[in-house]
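ugh ok so i messed up the first submission bc i forgot one of the chains. this is the corrected input, ALL of the components this time, i swear. 1253 residues overall. if the numbers dont match what u have on ur side tell me asap before i send this to the collaborators (the ones from the other lab, u know who)
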Amino acid sequence: MATHELRRPFKRPAISDQQRRREISLQRQAQNRRDAQHQARCLASTILTLQPAQYEPAEPDLQLQSETELIPELEIESQEHRRDLRDIDDVRQASRLKGVEARQWFAKQLMLPEWMIDVPERLNTDWYVFARPAGKRCFVVSSNGTTISRLRNGSMLHRFPSALPSGARTSKSSHSGQSYCILDCIFHEPDQTYYVIDMVCWAGMSLYECTTEFRFFWLNSKLVETGACDAPSSYHKFRFSTVPIYNCDQEGLNAAYTGPVPYVKDGLLFCNKHAHYQSGNTPLILVWKDENCSQYVIDTDSKGQVPNKQQVVLELLFDGKLATSDDPPVIFGCLNEDFIQEV
Amino acid sequence: MGPHYTTIHDEETTWTVQYAIIPRFSQAPLLDNLDPKEKDTMEVTQVLLSAQAIDSTVRKHAEDTLKQFQEQNLPGYLLSLSGELASEEKPVESRKLAGLILKNALDAKEQHRKYELVQRWLSLDVAVKSQIKACLLQTLSSPVPDARSTASQVIAKVAGIELPQKQWPELIGSLLSNIHQVPPHVKQATLETLGYLCEEVVPEVVEQDHVNKILTAVVQGMNANEGNNEVRLSATRALYNALSFAQANFSNDMERDYIMRVVCEATLSPEVKIRQAAFECLVSIGSTYYEKLAPYIQDIFNITSKAVKEDEEPVALQAIEFWSSICDEEIDILEEYGGEFTADSDVPCYYFIKQALPALVPMLLETLLKQEEDQDQDEGAWNLAMAGGTCLGLVARTVGDDIVPLVMPFIEENITKPDWRQREAATYAFGSILEGPSPDKLTPIVNVALNFMLTALTNDPSSHVKDTTAWTLGRIFEFLHGSTVETPIITPANCQQIITVLLQSMKDVPNVAEKACGALYFLAQGYEDLGSSSALTPYFQEIVQSLLNVTHREDAGESRLRTAAYETLNEVVRCSTEETARLVLELVQVIMAELHKTLEAQNLSSDEREKQNELQGLLCGCLQVIIQKLGASDTTKYAFMHYGDQIMNLFIRVFACRSATVHEEAMLAIGAFAYATGPNFAKYMPDFYKYLEMGLQNFEEYQVCAVTVGVVGDICRALEDKILPYCDGIMTQLLKDLSSNQLHRSVKPPIFSSFGDIALAIGENFEKYLMYAMPMLQSAAELSAHTSGADDEMIEYTNLLRNGILEAYSGIFQGFKNSPKTQLLIPYAPHILQFLDSIYMEKDMDDVVMKTAIGVLGDLADTLGSNAGSLIQQSLSSKDFLNECLSSDDHLIKESAEWARLAISRAISV
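and heres the new structure output, hopefully the right one now
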């Protein structure tokens, strides 16, 4: 049994800087984990309520209530959902979403067009038209000093600083959590520009309940003011741009159809002036494509030549309808049940 | 113990040399043709002697032979070793080595190996074990001291294995019967064995009757009328280990009085080793039985103070240590009081230090004048002055303001004396009392002293004085400067002078420069929370340049100067403000260039490689701090990201220059980098992945493994679902880590947490890991549900484990939310709810676990919804536990509980 060590630390700080570095890292990681979980939870309620009214009743065997109780309740819930969708608090929460939740939320939020298969009534007075830029459709969200773009499936495209309100941490930008934006954009690869085709929220104000007319007016007046349309700089990584929007009179249609634009065109978009912003497919937005205004109207091979036969992939929908895989899908026909059985 | 020439080491002091893989012996085995008896008598002795030969080939050959013998016939091997140890005809060298090898066959430092050895011994044939034990006990009577002493240790190791299994019940009885034998050497060996035995086994496995008899034997052996000094010394040392068995005896006044009297008498023995051992007992009694000391404290003060003044240094140091450990006890107790006396505290404070103060302080001040000439250069130095100053510092922390008037006259008298010893002692006394007394008391004194200190640091001819002065300045900044201090001691008027003096001192001899760096560290720290503007901003560039210059000094390897300079640089960066963000960005390039330089070095000796490795650690540490700093603000983050590719490339190269392990510091830096980079980190994954895997495989350096597990979380949050392609590999490693009993247990809770991180990142794709992860979580949950009988440390670990498990469940539930695969989780719900209920009923979870646990309840309800409605309603957690959390004072618990309530109400109302 040897004598026992009794040396104590002498003229040394009680903790080493290395230990301190470890501890600071652990603290940061714990905080990040808490944030991630907190985000996921906050979204819980929001996601459920923000889903547009496609409410599916739970399966009967899991129901606790009787049928008669169920129906009025469902109606109340749906109304609540509709109100929630416009609820500014929810949208503000959405602007702060992260991770899985953000993907799930944003995947459901874009307003999608239907094909233009006939001419709507009052086209010349009630509709706008513009040449749609070719590229990646996405939502751009600026909040808390950063800007994030998310594709149609909700996945992240870019995370960058921008001149949008709250889009970067710069001395002049406001740090207010209220100030955030959600823009409906198309990212055009060749000139690395976000073309803004609609405005959902601006500087903390929700435009969901506003008409297209107002949203476009607001878009055209506000976007330039911020400097978002300026050339890229270190605190503004991508240029934003508006697109020229026309009334659907002959002159406007002609300008949209043939007029020069700084981007590659992918069809014409028609927007009803009185429509509110609405998630999912809507007949109040229509798309037109032909070979003069879109390069994607027919298939080409790798050399750019049109093959002899055009191929089409049809999808059999649950109700027996056959649809194309276009975006939006075109219903081709309907198979009867006997035929489906045979197949 | 241990002969001069052998590679077989004592298992307790070195790593497992004996078990290193030795290539198979190619020639015919030496022992195979002999019958076992002959092997014992002839060969083993020779092999054991050869194993200590000067010639390494002979030695190696002998070791191989032993190893082979062990592999071929373990019982025979152990029997022949014990026979060798017991045989009086054998040379002492072979007997000692035989004993050492036996001891190594019973115990190892490494837990996993230790467990194997214990199992191996327990499974041996009873007859073999009896024969070995008989040999061991017989050896205690040997006239050869080394043989006896070796046998004592081996007996204790066997006892350590067998007593908890209720085996060898006759051991203590037969040892005690030795005590009454006449030859003193048998008595001595037996007392030594009892001492080792008390060190080896836990008190619970020895019945009280035996404890009483052991203590009686030991205390009698210590008694002044024991004529043999060897017996008395062994008894005193044995008491040191037996003290933890004496709970019952210390509660009995008569028995305690008797033990205390014998210990105090032993401190007066003419034999210095006995006095030292007796003071060691006093130190241990001071901390183990603090609450029983009151009747003896006056006597102990007299004894210790005489020893400090007059006795030889090893004894005097123990005497000072007694008071230091009493300070430790009282600091702990007073901390638990939280400044207020509460009746239900476990141990009351007896204020021994406060009462002894008027005599204790002068005694300690006197020791300060007994410095050694070169103590500042000697890393291992420990002398009277150092121990006395350290104790003075502890006294100041214990009594606070009361110490100041007792020390000030000493300082004033000595600080200007011509003898450096007096000036140094005065400065050291001042530095020692800066922690404890209130700023109100100290600030006026410091305001007067500061200027004097700055002058001394510049002009004092003695580097001892300068060293202590710089250290004292550091203490001033550490305790009296910062946003929480009301009256600032550093003002615009003196700030510049302070910095100038410190930067100048950084050019002084290494030990002084190191202390100056330390002072600057705390100076910077004081400006940490002062917002957007720091008084250091104007000097930032100059400070950084000076610190970089220090790192380049040729003698920066001495007195850990280079490390101190980088640590200070880190703190200066951490505490910098936006005003100097541009300069921090420039520093990135400088540090990267330094790191690049270390990577270009070629053909290094192993010594140089070790230094290079250390330097890379410091540079990666510095980059880590910078990344964290710049990553915290978006403005600086984007500017910093220009260097992203280069930095990542450097880290990868740092990993690549080690063959088997990754560098912990580089790994920590990558975690910070991934967090700052976000989804773009995906592009580095192909190159980085193999090092991530390597880090997760590092069982030996568990810190590296732990850090890497943390980085997995960072990467999950950065990449989100882009981490998916790497998840198979990561999950495989993590699951392996969890199943390993080699991995340090502290890494397991964070591994569970990282399951949660992965699930949250990849959502329902976690499906394929459920069948592996869930059973592991479930069995860990079962283990951690109950803590009955565990000590504080075990309860703390259990809570860490619970938190990890719960974070995993949280992440998995949230990850699967809104997925059609949610129903895959339903089968696990009953067990998880049961786990929550049982930890709630156990009533020993901490706030962190409480918050996580109630959160899991919410996550379960949120994700499973009506599917789990009735299960949730049946659980205790959804009622009592939830209500308790809802009314918690901790807002984090309350917040989680509110959320759980909402989620539950939704789940059960649908």
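quick check: The two ends of chain A are 88 Å apart (CA to CA). that seems consistent at least. The CA atoms of residues 300 and 308 of chain A lie 10 Å apart.
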